[in-house]
Amino acid sequence: MVDYGIGNTFSIRNGLQRVGFRAVLTKDLETLRRADLVVLPGVGSHQAAMSNIERYKLIDYLKDPDGWVLGICLGMQLLYERSEEGGLKGLGLLKGEVIRFRGVRKVPHMGWNEVNASKETPLLEGIEGRNFYFAHSFYKPFEGREEELGITEYEGVKFTSLVQKGKIIGTQFHPEKSSSAGRKFLENLAREIRR
Predict the structure, then answer these.
(1) What is the DSSP letter of 128?
(2) What does the alpha-carbon distance between residue 71 and residue 57 come to, in Å, rounded to a whole number?
């Protein structure tokens, strides 16, 4: 897991360990290069995360990673080209801009919501109901791009909740806080990585 000074690393570490990963929180570039999966944790400020990624000299590696990457919540948002939060650039691994919820009764979108598959994916196999836990104020609008695998709706706003482009995966939801659905998602991810 990339240590950029923010995020819910304890629960992510536990979730990963439950499905067989040895989870390590690190800023060390060589440790990240050797990892089976690099995780960008969620919760926090886009500006603080990108600033710390640059300060720890991880930006070049994260813009062109060697292997599997999982971005969770804020981590997924960092994968895109830019964010409306402070008008900042992201890592640019995925095309598009992350924007803030507007015209909804409550921000942040917090609680359980359904992830509907826009395309079939082994990442969602065997998950009944597909309800996951969300906690976010910014989102990537759903555009029907090839890599957008999951769509969720919050008060009429449709957003991308699961994305995969090759070995780059992003979840707007928190699998580590999503009970049995989240555990199954992480099991599916582990199976894909080991395939």
Answers:
(1) S
(2) 18
Q: CA-based diameter of the chain, in Å?
A: 45
Q: What is the mean pLDDT of the chain?
A: 95
In DSSP terms, 160 is beta-bridged to 151
Q: Whole-structure pTM over 0.85, yes or no?
A: yes
CA pair distance 7, 4, nearest whole angstrom: 8
Spatial separation of the C-alpha atoms in residues 98 and 76, rounded to whole Å: 10
pLDDT, tens only, 23-46 = 999 999 999 999 999 999 987 899
**120 three-class SS:** coil
Distances 164 to 28, 57, 158, 186, 191 between C-alpha atoms, Å: 25, 25, 18, 14, 15
Nearest residue to 40 (alpha-carbon basis) of 67, 64, 62, 16: 62
For 48-106, what is each residue's pLDDT tens digit? 999 999 999 999 999 999 899 999 999 999 999 999 998 889 999 999 999 999 999 99
CB environment 82-116: b (16+ within 10 A), e (fewer): bbebeebebbebbebebbebeeeeeeebeeebebb
d(CA 158, CA 154): 7
Catalytic residue ranges: 73, 174, 176
Strand, helix or coil for residue 62: helix
DSSP letter string over 63-101?
HS-SSEEEEETHHHHHTEEEETGGGEE---SEEEEEEE-
